[in-house]
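User: tokens in, sequence out, please.
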């Protein structure tokens, strides 16, 4: 049987990680839009990777389950790279929670059932989750462990509590890291691992949307006042992804890796701190 690496969200970050962990394995590229998957498939195929594509809507259980069936029909699922999502400038609070929070929980549940012993997953979260004030123990537990189909019914996620897209995004990304912690326990029962990466401003098309959107000035300020004084590249995220999915990361699971050039450090203890 072939070993399969599943990439959900075929943009720059998903591709960067895939290139580092997929040599000699079959890459299944899944995206909401077939044209995006096709474009990524051409790049990877031209670089020597064995690739197939699929369409998936991560907010649909039927769609995600179908992707699982597609992957397991190819071979043994050894890797999951979940890089799909929407940003605050792209969607309403309800859509962000459905795609970024529920969708991630769904992907973790479905692929946690089939990822093989020795396999590993990486979920792309965000620095935004680290700028949300501390939640209560009860809220953390709810985001981490509430059954997937009940997640969006949590009182803390209702419209009277989540009134703007940025707040929804912060909650979703905090929820991603908490969910991965809980899922790591379950994945570990059959010898698989899963972690999150929380990137800062990485120069991707999604980041360009934000830089050119209503929050663009704030994004530029974050870059200028961060210790690194620059945005990151997908390849830098790929390096961390390769560590987490590879042999050198076998002791790492249930963890979240913040890589944002120090933006969060500056937010809490530097010039980006709220006045």
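Assistant: Sequence out:
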């Amino acid at each position: 049987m072939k070993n399969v690496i599943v990439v959900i969200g075929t943009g720059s970050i998903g591709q960067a990680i895939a290139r580092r962990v997929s040599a000699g394995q079959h890459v299944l590229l899944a995206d909401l839009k077939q044209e995006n998957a096709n474009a990524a498939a051409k790049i990877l195929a031209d670089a020597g990777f064995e690739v197939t594509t699929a369409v998936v809507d991560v907010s649909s259980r039927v769609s995600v389950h179908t992707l699982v069936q597609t992957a397991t029909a190819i071979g043994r699922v050894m890797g999951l790279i979940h890089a799909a999502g929407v940003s605050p400038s792209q969607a309403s609070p309800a859509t962000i929670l459905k795609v970024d929070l529920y969708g991630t929980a769904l992907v973790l549940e479905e692929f946690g059932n089939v990822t093989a012993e020795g396999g590993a997953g990486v979920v792309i979260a965000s620095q935004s989750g680290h700028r949300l004030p501390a939640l209560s123990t009860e809220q953390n537990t709810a985001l981490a462990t509430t059954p997937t189909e009940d997640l969006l019914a949590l009182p803390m996620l209702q419209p009277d509590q989540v009134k703007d897209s940025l707040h929804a995004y912060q909650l979703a990304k905090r929820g991603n890291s908490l969910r991965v912690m809980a899922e790591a326990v379950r994945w570990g029962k059959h010898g698989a691992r899963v972690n999150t990466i929380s990137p800062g401003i990485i120069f991707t098309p999604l980041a360009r949307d934000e830089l050119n959107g209503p929050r663009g000035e704030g994004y530029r300020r974050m870059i200028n006042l961060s210790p690194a004084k620059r945005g990151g590249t997908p390849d830098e995220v790929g390096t961390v992804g390769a560590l987490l999915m590879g042999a050198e990361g076998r002791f790492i699971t249930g963890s979240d890796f913040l890589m944002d050039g120090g933006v969060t450090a500056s937010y809490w203890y530097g010039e980006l701190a709220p006045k």
